[in-house]
Structures are given as structure tokens and as C-alpha cells.
Amino acid sequence: MKLHGVKVHPSKALLKREDQLAWKIAGVATDKVAVPKDVTAMIINRVIDNASVAIAAINRSPVVSARAMALGHPSKGGAAVFGMPATKTVSPEWAAWANGTAVRELDMHDTFLAAEYSHPGDNIPPVLAVAQAMEKSGKDLVRGIATGYEIQMDLVRAISLHEYKVDHIAHLGPSAAAGIGALLGLKQEVIFQAVQQALHTTITFRQSRKGEISSWKAFAPAHAGKLAIEAVDRAMRGEGAPSPIYEGEDSVIAWVLAGRSNRDDVFGPTYYQVPLPEKGEPKRAIMDSYTKEHSAEYQSQALIDLAFRMREQIADLEKIEKIIIHTSHHTHYVIGTGANDPQKMDPKASRETLDHSIMYIFAVALQDGSWHHVESYSPKRAGRADTVRLWHKVETQEDPEWTRRYHATDPNELAFGGRVEIQFKDGTSLVDELGVANAHPNGARPFGRQDYIRKFQTLTDGIISAREANRFLDVVQDLPRLAAGDLSLLNVSLPKGTLLEGKPGIF
User: 17-29 burial by CB neighbour count: b if 16+ within 10 A, else e?
Assistant: First the structure.
């Protein structure tokens, strides 16, 4: 990996293309270095993972709406939509919209956390949609997905968006564009323009994950994927983009990110050091990402597992006086009491808000000793009087050590959990801690292929037929050998008559 300094330059500097981050990203995408076998195996795992959570969410309102919108854009020889027969295709950007929404709705697929937050599996729907529409092979798809993961995760390692209240899909637009470019074998110039277009159009703000969180949280990454496809299409037709999009005098960095807080010295020191693979270096970033065993914000994964462990030592939960979760800055301020969001303590809050409330999540996990992607968030479950009492006894506090570990570069120190102190009414206390979730690569039970298959079978049970489940699992595990034009086989369909229809709209 090589670090690339990125800062704002005045227009008169005429920054050369080869010195621009978008050009370097495009260079990584055009490097046809072989995808390692373990990376290919992990890509297969994540395609299974995405299908699992997408089918589990297939008849939830945002997914139904996104699918209905996509079906308003039929295209012969286009891309397939989750739940529908693979023979019914739509324009690829709309397939990415529908499938991306389905994948994100339950907030249960893979994650990577560093300077920024991300769900790099969000790259798969747009890359797959274009691969199906353009009749590419399984090997091509693997190359495109590996590239999408690499670019998004490298940007996430270096550039914080949330610090400036920008939503994390601003890294997803460029990465999906780069992944599509790699898939199609496009020239560096074309990918360069597409990456810039995609970034320019995907700058949105974190209000989507603040306060009363709405269904837009599920649509947001699908929106980025859709825009990335459109950006690539325009670039392939010879159209350009705002440039230099990262380093220009009126660029994203200059006015939205780091440069905005330092306008007096805007052309001064380097703001970011972005790591990218050197030419001939394999794209291995996906190996540093991790999936979710539980349907909740990633920072809650280890704390859910910890709640399961601690409940075994508590005879009566009603005897708890207070629960203090000592954790990282991010957990405290985004999903903890540091967010100062009253909705996070409201039994009538939306599912999207509850899965971003560690106070609610820890209380329910402590009571139930299990977690379910639907039942754990039901209005009846959230409104239980004993749950509300326990929930309101939970608070979070930032601990500098957990914040340090959250940002650690040593994978053996990296941690997303915390230390929990449960104080009882009799003055005694119970203290325990857990750094990473059981399913994390460094956890007690790291996820392997059979875990991904079990997750798929569990989440799709009763929704698709056993025959369809077995067919998909057989095909996806043979992904690198799928011939050109066979990628529609990766679509998962429901029995006829079981898909809900969306409300009427414009499309």
C-alpha cells in the first residue's frame, strides 16, 4: 500500500491528473491484478450475506416501495430484482436501487469502521446489476466487487465524513463507480470521470441517521449505487465531471470537509493520507471487513454478545439500579446517551431509531438472551413496561481507552465494544467487558462459510422454497466459474403471489 497525500490546491496551480486522488483511484480500478483465492472466497460469503438480509427484508415497506419503483423501468436484457423471477428485468440502475435498499433495510450485512463508517457490501448491488445487464462473467464480477471494497475501505481508513456531518455514502459513490469500471474493463480516463461524477452527486448529510431516523437510511446507499451507475454511463459516453473533485479550490475537501474549517490556510498542509494498493498489489481490503450476526448497528454487536454473557450471572433484573456502558466516542455519541436524542429512549420510536439506540438494544438483549431481526424491534416488544424500566436505567460514557482501541491500526487492538458496569440496588455490582463481537475475525466464533450459509437459511426460511435456497447456494459457491450471461442465476426469487405490491407513485 502507498499513502497518497490529499489537500486543496488553488485553481491556478493546474493540478495534474496524475496527482489527483480520483485519477489514482481509477488507476487501481484499471489494474487487472489477479484476485487472491481467499478474497474470492470472502466475496462469495458476502454475496450470500447480502442475499440473506435482502430476502429477509423483501416485504418490508422501503423494500416494497423500491421494488415497485424499479419495476416501473422494465428493460429487456437488464438486471434482475430480488424476489422477482430472473426473467423479469429492469434497467440496471433501478435494479441497484431496489436490491441496494433490500440489502440495507435490516442493517445486518457487513461493516468496516475506521476514520469513517461503512457497509462495503453496499458495493455489490450496483456492480452486480451492471454485470447482469452487460452479460459479464463471474470472474469479471469478482474483480469488480474486490475493487469496490478496496476503494471504499481505503477512503474510509483516511477520510472522516461524519466529523463534518456528511453521510458515509459519499465514499460509496466513488467506490461503486470504480468497481463498475473494473468490472467492465474501462479505461482510466473513463473511470476517473465517473469517480468524480459519483462523488459530486452523493454528498448528503448525516441527518439521515440522527433524531427520528426514517426509512431513508435504507434507501441512502441504494441511491449512491444508482448514481454511480449513471455516472459510469455518462463517462462511457464521453462526458466529463467537476474536476479536481477532491482537491479543487471549490471542491468537496475545500468547502465540505477538512478545508472548510481552515479557510485561512486552505492551500496549506496535507489534510488526508489515503492508502491505495500499488500497481500489481492484490486488492485485499474485503478481508479486513466483518459481518453482523445480529440485526443492529455494528457497535452494538459485541455489547449484545456481552449482554447474553452477563445475564447468566443475574438472578433478578428488577434489582438493577443502573447500567453504565463505558465505550468509544462513536458509540457514546452516535448510538448512546451522548447523542442527546430523546427518540433513542422512546418506546414508540421507529425500528430505524431503535437499532441505533444501544440503551434499548442492551436492555432487550439482557432480558431475552437472544436477538431477532423482527421480534426484537416490534412495537409490542419495545413497549413492554419492564423493558422500558430497564432501558431507562442504561447510560453510556466515553472512555478514552475504548476510543483509542476503536481507532487502533493494530488489528489485535482494534475494538468496537466496551466495559459494562451493572450496579444493583443492594450496592453490589457486576462488571464485564468485550472488545469484539463473537462473529468478528478476532472474536470467539469467527464467521466462516458455514455460518454465512446458516445465516442465509435462517433469514430466508419460510420466505423462499428449500429448492430455491439450495439452488442459489450451489450457484453462488461456483461464482468464479459462472460464464458470461449467467449472473442472473444469482438472483433469489420468491414463490408466485408472495411479494407485496407497493403503493402507486409516479413510475
Answer: eeebbbbbbbbbb
Beta strand residue intervals within 255-335, DSSP E = 272-276, 320-327
Q: How is residue 283 written as a grid cell?
A: 486488492
Same domain, 180 and 313: no
Looking at this protein, which amino acid is placed at residue 152? Q
Cα 248 to Cα 255: distance, rounded to the nearest angstrom: 10
If asked whether residues 205 and 105 sit together in one domain, one would say yes
AA identity, residue 124: I
Residue that terminates a domain, selected from 380, 400, 434: 434
Please choose, from the candidates 112, 130, 150, 292, the residue with its C-alpha nearest in 3D space to the C-alpha of residue 226.
Answer: 130
pLDDT value of residue 256: 87
Answer yes or no: is 462 within a domain.
no
Task: Please check whether residues 283 and 303 belong to one and the same domain.
Answer: no
Give the C-alpha separation, 500 to 269, whole Å.
54
Q: What is the pLDDT of residue 267?
A: 59
Residue 309: CATH number of its domain: 3.30.1330.120
230 and 179 within one domain = yes
The CA distance from 230 to 176, in Å, is 11
Name the β-bridge partners of 265: none
Containing 114, the helix (H) or strand (E) segment is: none
Cα gap 329→249, rounded to integer Å: 32
What is the rounded CA–CA span in Å between residue 356 and residue 209? 8
CB 476 within 8 A of CB 50: no
Same domain for 239 and 362?
no
> For 113-145, what is each residue's pLDDT tens digit?
888 989 999 999 999 999 999 999 999 999 999
The CATH number assigned to the domain holding 251 equals 1.10.4100.10
> Do 418 and 302 form a contact (C-beta atoms < 8 A)?
yes
Q: Are residues 152 and 88 in the same domain?
A: yes
Assess if residue 178 is contained within a domain. yes
Distance from chain centroid for Cα 266:
31
- Rounded CA gap, 63 and 453, in Å? 23
Total domain count for the chain?
2
Q: What is the DSSP letter of 422?
A: E
Query: Does residue 447 belong to any structural domain of this protein?
Result: no
Q: Yes or no: say if 417 and 437 are a contact pair by the CB < 8 Å rule.
A: yes
Question: Which residues constitute the domain of residue 190?
Answer: 2-288
Element (H, E) at 236: helix 216-236
C-alpha span between 276 and 147 (Å, rounded): 11
Q: How many CB atoms lie within 10 A of CB 504?
A: 7
Place of cell 470467539: 444
Distance between CA atoms of residues 306 and 418, nearest Å: 9
* Residues 380 and 243 reside in one and the same domain: no
Residue 491, in any domain of the structure? no
pLDDT digits (tens, 9 = 90+) for 203-250: 998 787 766 667 888 899 999 999 999 999 999 999 999 999 999 988
Is 318 found in the same domain as 243? no
Cα(143)–Cα(296) distance, integer angstroms: 30
